[in-house]
Design a protein that fits this description.
This protein is mainly alpha-helical. The protein has 14 helices and four strands. It has two domains: 21-31 and 42-185 and 339-350, Cytochrome c-like domain (Cytochrome Bc1 Complex, Chain D, domain 2, Orthogonal Bundle), CATH 1.10.760; 189-336, Cytochrome c-like domain (Cytochrome Bc1 Complex, Chain D, domain 2, Orthogonal Bundle), CATH 1.10.760.10. The longest helix is centred in the first third of the chain and has 20 residues, at 2-21.
């Protein structure tokens, strides 16, 4: 009698264990709100956005356990309150190792066709794992990161609810992909002006006209020609271009990926949304202000065999007036999305994210300012 009861109890416990193991979660779809002024993106069909997946990706984005020595997370080089950009010239990884490029901002990624300045990643899912394994960044193999997460019961549960799977490089990438795809910036002052909810100042309107006008003196057009590369609602054409920068540090851009001579010195055209917040500029952070960037296009373009045709056609010399330059800055500042910045701050607070205090020459400080010009007769 007792033996029969014991057998029944054992069978019941085994059945419960099997049932628990067979639990299949049904994640809740995540609803995106994309304005009609934006083209509809193609989200990955094999990784539909869910509330559980997005929440897990957010947690992983701030997780320092994904770095070799538990010191940095994705957020350390893509600071949410800075429009997911990095104010340093080059990003700084574990053991204070410096990279060689400035981190690109992470927003409106659903419209991207490739990732990184040289386009070496074709998908966002591929992109998120590369910094994790990079020696100068997080320096942790994604497989080892997955093992760490599998030793955390809260992560095991979260991955099960999001993907019905355990932590792995693939599911880590899928979670980060979901979170990053939800970071959409579409409510700047420029957008409000376009919707009739705000009115541009005279200076902003002059800057807008310069931005969207050709430079073609033969036909009486003296614009700044910006729109050729920074077009559409996302303010980038998603191409690669040689924009007349002097090559430094042996960085040859897209050429390093393709090996094609034509791609030497070509880098991805970045979005100009939130550009007033994402200094320093260019792939190596060489320009600290929008005025320096505009001065480059006005007077500093360096000729090259593959110089972008829209720069080459006017010899790389727009010769913009002081008033033109200020108007362009004013227009570019209308591309700042304050609501996006506020959401970034809220994410930092929610995830208890704090940067280490800046220090002289430290990773969260710009390079030292250039020395003052030499004195001549006691006068600088």
């Amino acid at each position: 009698m007792k033996l029969g009861r014991a057998i029944r109890v054992s069978m019941f416990m085994i059945a419960c264990a099997v049932a628990a193991a067979a639990v299949v979660y049904k994640p809740t779809p995540f609803r995106m709100g994309i304005r009609a002024s934006f083209p509809q993106p193609s989200f990955p069909a094999d990784n539909p956005l869910t509330q559980e997946g997005v929440a897990l990706g957010e947690r992983l984005f701030f997780e320092t356990h994904l770095s070799e020595n538990d010191t940095i997370s994705c957020a350390h080089c893509h600071i949410p309150a800075e429009s997911f950009s990095d104010p340093r010239r080059e990003s700084v990884g574990v053991h204070r190792r410096r990279g060689r490029r400035n981190s690109m901002p992470l927003f409106n990624l659903a419209w991207r066709k490739s990732f990184f300045w040289d386009g070496r990643a074709k998908t966002l899912r591929e992109q998120v794992l590369i910094p994790m394994a990079d020696h100068n960044e997080m320096n942790l193999a994604p497989e080892k990161a997955a093992v760490r997460l599998r030793n955390d019961e809260t992560y095991v549960s979260a991955f099960a609810k999001a993907f019905n799977a355990e932590p792995s490089p693939q599911t880590i990438a899928m979670a980060l992909e979901q979170f990053l795809l939800t970071q959409i910036s579409q409510d700047s002052r420029y957008d409000k002006i376009q919707r009739g909810e705000a009115k541009a100042t005279a200076l902003e309107e002059r800057g807008r006209a310069l931005f969207f006008t050709e430079y073609d003196p033969a036909h009486g057009m003296f614009g700044a020609d910006c729109f050729h590369c920074h077009s559409t609602a996302v303010f980038t054409n998603e191409r690669f271009a040689n924009n007349g920068l002097e090559l430094r540090g042996g960085d040859e851009g897209r050429f390093e990926v393709t090996g094609r001579e034509h791609d030497r010195g070509m880098f991805k055209v970045p979005s100009l949304r939130n550009v007033a917040l994402t200094a320093p500029y260019m792939h190596d952070g060489r320009f600290r202000s929008l005025r320096e960037v505009i001065e480059h296009y006005s007077t500093g373009v360096v000729d090259a065999p593959n110089l972008d045709p829209n720069l080459a056609k006017h010899g790389g010399q727009l010769g913009l007036s002081k008033e033109d330059k200020e108007a362009l800055v004013a227009f570019l500042e209308t591309l700042t999305d304050e609501s996006f910045v506020e959401r970034g701050r809220a994410l930092e607070e929610k995830n208890d994210f704090h940067l280490p205090p800046p220090r002289e020459g430290g990773p969260f400080a710009f390079d030292p300012p250039p020395p003052p010009p030499p004195r001549r007769n006691g006068v600088r």
